[in-house]
């Protein structure tokens, strides 16, 4: 088992009687990329600021590098932080920005210059010491901010939505750069974001946060394919979300692979893999990924073992590899989003066209609804 660089034990924080972070306990292994994913207002920035020492927890304890941090001020913690707005010093050169923390520590100029030069090489900015910050592109400024933090050799690098201010193409590029930098340095990264794509692409493990708590912590694959709560199923990745009522019990359906039958509010009978016990008559929520649905022009083209539905194309959403079709099931008029295969087989699909679709019930997940 790898050593732990960050450990939180029953950490909580309140603002004016409202709980922002509720009794959180978790660990982050050394050298890993750990992301906290959640919507605005879920408490992720509050948690990150407590780790950094800018906020004091009301309850619980935080350990960094095996040492308790309660009462330790931010400048004494083995932590550095990269913000969305990078807070580079515009009056300083690139080299002065990267070496600022080293100068504050009182290192000799020659040693600072050596460390800064080596760090700029490692972040693919060789020989940029004398450049002004305003001469750099957005991606270059991002790398300078990361270099300024990593040159101090922190136990943890905390990143607060650092790609949020970049345009889409640069953000996609910087995701790959960040992942490569973290792997090259081996520093433990703790990253917060509301962008699920960032969290899934970058992370070894992701904590999905909602209303001050972690709903689920796991690998990106576990969160995507094995969500444990309706919130995670709906927040991580795109899904068709169906509400209805169970017509069978999952607790008695083990022989059928834990499948539960349910009828949607619109009267469509379906089956899905139950997550947790579901009793007949309970209100349920089911989630089906667009890419898990098979599309065909004729029902006979679909797998015979899966229930087949008829539908009509309502809209075509062309986005290259992410292209999809919106259709309505014929009887219930329910809307479904289905990912289009990349073969080009449906490139001539037209609005109003009749189609058939089906899915493997094992690839859909179903939860007992909190409202039941």
Write a brief caption for the model:
With 372 residues, the chain is α+β, with helices and mostly antiparallel strands. Helix content is 23%, strand content 34%. The longest helix has 18 residues, at 168-185.
Topology pattern, helix = H, strand = E:
EEEHEEEHHHEHEHEEHHEEEEEEEEEE
Radius of gyration: 25 Å
Low-confidence stretches: none
With helices defined by DSSP (H or I, 4 residues minimum), what is the helix count?
8
Mean pLDDT, all residues: 90
- Order of strands, main sheet, comes to 6-7-8-3-9-10
How does CATH name the architecture of the largest domain?
3-Layer(aba) Sandwich
- Principal-axes shape call: globular
Please give a structural write-up.
This protein is of the alpha+beta class and 372 residues long. It folds into two domains: 4-232, Rossmann fold (3-Layer(aba) Sandwich); 238-368, OB fold (Dihydrolipoamide Acetyltransferase, E2P) (Beta Barrel), CATH 2.40.50. Helix content is 23%, strand content 34%. The chain contains eight helices and 20 strands. The chain has helices at residues 44-52, 94-104, 109-122, 138-150, 168-185, 196-202, 220-225, 230-235, and strands at 4-15, 18-29, 33-37, 59-64, 67-68, 79-83, 156-160, 188-193, 205-210, 213-218, 240-246, 259-264, 269-274, 283-288, 293-296, 308-317, 324-329, 335-339, 354-359, 364-368. The strands form four sheets. Strands 6-7-8-3-9-10 form a six-stranded mixed beta sheet, with helices on both faces. Strands 11-12-13-20-14 form a five-stranded mixed barrel. A hairpin with a 2-residue loop joins strand 9 (205-210) and strand 10 (213-218). It starts with a strand and ends with a strand.
């Amino acid at each position: 088992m790898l050593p732990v660089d960050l450990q939180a034990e029953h950490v909580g924080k309140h603002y004016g009687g409202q709980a922002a972070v509720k009794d959180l306990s978790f660990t982050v292994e050394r050298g890993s990329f750990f992301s906290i994913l959640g919507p605005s207002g879920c408490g992720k920035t509050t948690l990150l600021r407590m780790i950094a020492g800018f906020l004091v927890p009301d309850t619980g304890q935080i350990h960094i590098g095996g040492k308790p941090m309660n009462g330790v001020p931010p400048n004494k913690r083995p932590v550095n932080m990269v913000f969305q707005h990078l807070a580079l010093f515009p009056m300083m050169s690139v080299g002065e920005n990267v070496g600022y923390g080293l100068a504050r520590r009182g290192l000799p100029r020659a040693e600072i210059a050596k460390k800064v030069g080596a760090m700029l090489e490692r972040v693919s900015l060789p020989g940029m010491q004398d450049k002004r910050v305003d001469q750099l592109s957005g991606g270059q400024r991002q790398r300078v901010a990361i270099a300024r933090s990593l040159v101090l050799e922190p136990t943890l690098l905390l990143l607060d939505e650092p790609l949020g201010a970049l345009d889409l193409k640069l953000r996609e590029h910087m995701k790959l750069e960040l992942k490569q930098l973290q792997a090259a340095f081996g520093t433990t990264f703790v990253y917060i974001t509301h962008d699920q794509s960032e969290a899934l692409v970058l992370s070894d493990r992701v904590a999905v946060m909602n209303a001050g708590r972690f709903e689920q912590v796991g690998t990106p694959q576990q969160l995507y394919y094995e969500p444990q709560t309706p919130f995670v199923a709906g927040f991580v990745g795109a899904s068709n979300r169906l509400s209805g009522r169970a017509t069978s019990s999952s607790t008695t359906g083990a022989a059928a692979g834990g499948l539960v039958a349910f009828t949607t509010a619109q009267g469509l009978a379906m089956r899905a893999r139950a997550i947790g016990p579901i009793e007949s008559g309970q209100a349920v929520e089911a989630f089906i990924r667009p890419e898990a649905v098979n599309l065909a022009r004729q029902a006979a083209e679909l797998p015979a073992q899966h229930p087949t539905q008829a539908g009509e194309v309502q809209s075509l959403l062309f986005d290259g590899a992410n292209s999809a079709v919106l259709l309505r099931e014929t009887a219930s008029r329910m809307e479904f989003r289905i990912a289009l295969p990349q073969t080009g087989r449906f490139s001539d699909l037209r609005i109003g066209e009749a189609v058939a679709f089906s899915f493997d019930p094992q690839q859909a997940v179903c939860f007992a609804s909190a409202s039941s």
